[in-house]
Amino acid sequence: MTTGNLKLESTNVKTAPGVDLSNDQKTLVSSVLDLFAGRPSLEKMALWRDDGVFQDPITIAQGRKQYEAQWVGVELLHDRSRLT
């Protein structure tokens, strides 16, 4: 998994005693933490499958077009150069 362009900010991943994460798992968890902290990017979204599903209590987003809009916002998806 390539992490150079992700610019992860939530890198201090805490786990329960006895839980060990691989480097790839730490990258994924850090990326999700960044998303929930309001720091999305298309590079972080690239870690998700094209047919991935995001579900929370108020929405279900199926496929890249729908779940990217949940995190990044439709207006930003039209101008990808604004995202870092």
Spatial extent as radius of gyration: 13 Å
Could you give the distance between the termini? 18 Å
What structural class should be given to the helix and strand makeup? alpha+beta
Q: How much β-strand is present in the residues?
A: 5-15%
How much is the average pLDDT?
Answer: 82
Helical amount: 25-40%
Largest sheet: 2 strands, antiparallel
In one word, what is the shape? Answer: globular
- Element string (H = helix, E = strand): HHEEHH
Q: Are there runs of 5+ residues with pLDDT below 50, and where?
A: none
Number of β-strand runs: 2
Oligomeric composition of the shown chains: single chain
Q: Helix segment count?
A: 4
Within the largest sheet, what's the order of strands?
1-2
Overview of the molecule:
With 84 residues, this protein is of the alpha+beta class. The chain has a domain at 45-84. The chain has 4 helices and 2 strands, in the order ααββαα. It has helices spanning 23-36, 42-45, 64-71, 74-77; strands spanning 53-56, 59-62. The chain has a two-stranded antiparallel ribbon with strand order 1-2. Strand 1 and strand 2 form a beta hairpin. The longest helix has 14 residues, at 23-36. The chain is globular and about 35 Å long. The mean pLDDT is 82.
List the helices and strands and how they pair.
Elements: H1 23-36, H2 42-45, E1 53-56, E2 59-62, H3 64-71, H4 74-77
Antiparallel strand pairs: 1-2
Quick summary:
The protein is of the alpha+beta class and 84 residues long. It has helices at 23-36, 42-45, 64-71, 74-77; strands at 53-56, 59-62.
